[in-house]
Amino acid sequence: MPYLRPVPADQSAPPAGADTGQATGERPVPEQDPRVQWAATLAVIIAGALTIRPMGLSGQGLAVAVLFVVNAASLLARRLPEHRVPPRLALVWLTLGVFAAAALIGVSSSGTSYLFAFFLAGHIGYRLETRPALVLAGLCSLLCGAVLYLSLGPEQDPLAWTFGLATGIPVLIGIVNRTQRRAVRAAIEAAGSAERAARAEARTAVLTERGRIARDVHDVLAHSLAGINMQLELADALIDTGDLNKVREAHEKAHDLVKESLRQAQWTVHALREDTLPLPQSLAAMLASSGHRDALTVTGTERRLPAKVVQNLLRIAQEALTNAARHAPGGAVDVELTFAAASTTLRIRNRPATGEVGAGAGAGSGMGLIGMRERVALLGGTLTAGPVAEGPYQGDWQVEAVIPR
């Protein structure tokens, strides 16, 4: 059964307690259950204690006992966490363990002393880098094979002492386990980095959206309410003069501003919705509500535009129509929507005023040209605004937004 061991968090991870949407910190890396490793280690030690002979308090038995304790300590030390054992210290400890395992095989006359060499060689592959691991495992094989060859003699069956040469083979298993562990750790760290990047991107998107909504609300409410307040203050001031006609005129202008603000608020909410109609239908509805029916001309092959493009183009059209009504009342309005292969172009063109221009027309529009350019820049496009200098529409005021596909 896999065991999940925590790995130190990436230094680039957000600090604990940060508002990231998920807990940060350590990520688990699947490994072998430590209970299995402890059981295997204790089984080797217990088997050695029961079978390795001679073992006593003097002579050869004392040497066997001391080497047995050293081997047991070397084997138990493999449970030490890697970050607590420097690589050089690990190399020294495992090298001494190899010599102790070979010596135990040499001084003992029977038992399972060879198991210490096998398990230690496997841990060498797991703990050390590949090159030093292979070198140390080769040294273990040569030492154990030489000890058995010298202790048994050349006349003994070669299979007995060549068994010692096999003690370094488990290093390959250790190397495979280490490689798999590092691959899993790298994958988990990569997933963590991707997750943190996604959270940062989502947070940036939220902040951008909040800024856009705040700008829309400001465009619709701030200037409209300021105009309404100005007209009401004017009406209050005119009451003292007794000129009721001018008071009524101020109230009517405030009334008109309220109606216009409500209409803009409705279109702002409509533009902010994700389920808005396609751009041509939305523009047609906007023009109809503004009293400009059949003012829309669509050329090119119509295509579905991203919601972000639709929303910003609707707000540009809304602002341009508001400006036309304020600065050129009574003038005809034409709206052209062109779908080209590489771009989408929106033109709003209004003719000179035929009615009386209100006193507050010079106060400026809510978003203004700066806001329009800001919206188009967010889409990677360009915006031009000004009077038409030549052609059949000379003298008209035109706003043109070009958005790349």
Task: Describe the fold and architecture.
A five-stranded mixed β-sheet has the order 3-4-5-7-6, covered by helices on one side. With 405 residues, the protein is α+β, with helices and mostly antiparallel strands. The chain has eleven helices and seven strands. 27% of the residues are buried. It is 60% helix and 11% strand. The radius of gyration is 42 Å and the shape is rod-shaped. β3, α10 (307-327) and β4 (333-339) form a beta-alpha-beta unit. α7 runs antiparallel to α8 and α10 packs antiparallel against α11.
Any descriptors?
two-stranded antiparallel ribbon; single chain; alpha+beta; 5-stranded mixed beta sheet; disordered N terminus
End-to-end distance, in Å?
53 Å
Strand content: 5-15%
Radius of gyration: 42 Å
What spatial form do the alpha-carbon principal axes imply? Answer: rod-shaped
Structural category is: alpha+beta
Please give the share of residues in helix: 55-70%
Q: Identify the strand order in the major beta sheet.
A: 3-4-5-7-6
SSE run: EEHHHHHHHHHEHEEHEE
The major pleated sheet works out as: 5 strands, mixed
| Overall mean confidence score, pLDDT | 83
How many strand segments? 7
Provide a concise account of the structure shown.
This protein is an alpha+beta fold and 405 residues long.
